[in-house]
Amino acid sequence: MDKVMDSIGQLRSSRKFNWFNATELDALLEEEVAPEEIWWGTSRHDELHKLESVAQIPSILRMVLEWGENYSFENDPMTKYAQGTKLVDGNYTLELAVVGHQACNIRIGYGADPDCLSSHPDADVEFESPQSLSIAQVTEVLGQWLLGRGLPSGYGGSIHIYG
To answer: What is the pTM of this model?
Structure first.
């Protein structure tokens, strides 16, 4: 049984021929720091806090306890931000935005057609829809985006432009 558990704990990285166990991958994630200062907040925290590493993202999301509560991440001066809301199904929305003369807000979804779903601010996310993301999905997308790597495969979004 120990050999099976050891095998399950082994995961291949994107680097050819390098193998890491789950503990080593956790350590790599903890070292991942965004190339710029990122600040985070939730509905339950009046002040913004500095994001130390992308490994904090799941803990921050777990602070958003009830339906309708929000979380946000932003740089300073604000040229990009991410925000989301806890949904009735226990999952979260995720919106990524780039701010310039206008704000381009992209509501993230997974699957074949996330660009066909609504991104209008008054449009509710349907129960268990592709825009209803788990903590793991939000962490994956948000972590990669904050590190400047873009969206992971399998995710996309619909755009709403403000201004």
So the answer is: 0.77
